[in-house]
Amino acid sequence: MSNLYWLTDEQMARLEPYFPKSHGKPRVDDRRVLSGIIFVNRNGLRWRDAPAAYGPHKTLYNRWKRWSEAGVFVRMMEGLSGAQAERRTVMIDATYLKAHRTASSLRVKKGASGD
Fold it and tell me: Is 5 in contact with 35 (CB distance < 8 Å)?
């Protein structure tokens, strides 16, 4: 695949504070693995269908699983959204509309309104 996704140096610098400390054996390349995780999730792929450029699919899955269970990705999203909120205010409209399927098929019967 020629359209592989790679995190930039700036993106990695913003994410690094949220990485857990490495104990013992150093982790494989964080940029490669995180880029692979994002690529798989963004494209709705099975882990085994990840392009080889991201490394073994087992590594991608294992990192995703461990870091998900440890709350690493949640902390990343919360931390990044907090940093974004400090820079500007974003308003979200929470309006919720629901129309019943019969709403469009209601017909006024002649004479029902007193005509």
Answer: yes
Q: What is the chain's pLDDT, residue by residue, as a tens digit (115 residues)?
A: 458 999 999 999 999 999 998 888 888 899 999 999 999 999 999 999 999 999 999 999 999 999 999 999 999 988 888 755 555 555 556 666 555 555 555 555 555 555 5
Using CA atoms in the order 74, 75, 81, 85, what is the torsion angle rounded to 10 degrees? 140
CA dihedral 73, 74, 80, 86 (to 10 degrees): -170
* Residue 75, both tokens: 């902390």
Alpha helices in the chain (DSSP H): 9-15, 30-43, 57-69, 72-87
pTM, entire model: 0.67
Structural contact between residues 40 and 77, judged by C-beta atoms closer than 8 angstroms: no
Question: What are the domain boundaries of the chain?
Answer: 1-115
Distance CA 11, CA 14 (A): 5
